[in-house]
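note to self: dont lose this again. the chain is below, predicted strucutre after it. 246 aa total, dont forget to put it in the shared folder this time
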Amino acid sequence: MKRYGLIGRPLGHSFSAGYFAAKFRREGITGCDYALYELPSIEALPELLGAQPELQGFNVTIPYKQRIFDYLDDVSEEAARIGAVNCVRRDGGRLTGFNTDIEGIRLSLRLLLGDDLPEAALVLGTGGASQAVQYALAEAGIPYAVVSRDPARGNFLYDDLRPEIVAGHRLIVNATPVGTFPHVDEAPLLPYEALTAAHYLFDLVYNPERTQFLLRGERQGAHTLNGLPMLEAQAEASWRIWNGVI
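---
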């Protein structure tokens, strides 16, 4: 049995196990299993690997996309530049880290923006997913500012987001877990009344499909996209990596 999985904490909201189970059925893939491995800390990873010798590769989610680096033997050039890993391939005793979030983010930005290129973007959050978003925006030539709860890690605090700042940043990306099930009534602190039909809102959260962040944007006429296309694209990229296609 070839095993694959996801490490992180918490994992109750995870999309990955259901996605891969459906993929295996749909494509007639046998002898494979995908499981959730909720680790109390990243220090528990060696124990997991020792207990799961058939584990061929795994995805990495909050809060371990940056902490995983200490346990890797090698990192792809792109993952190193991004500063976050969400996919690990296991070759014997060696662990190699990749970032497949970037493929999903590139796809999502194309789906959401089309040919429109916003003059500036706001990125909410500073974790591993935010780093991949920042990389994709720089690659696309879209200037951005980072919003954080920590003044040392962002360009703005949430309390700094006056209506004129939101009006001047037509793309807003939620790269935080705010609004994720079961906290479906929560939304990032923004002056939503400043949003217009010229704004684009991209939420990396996919459960629920319509977060309060997206719903409040839609009420103002903004274009919106959730995290499902991103998750599907990164899952397929992970599968290619684990099976030597990349």
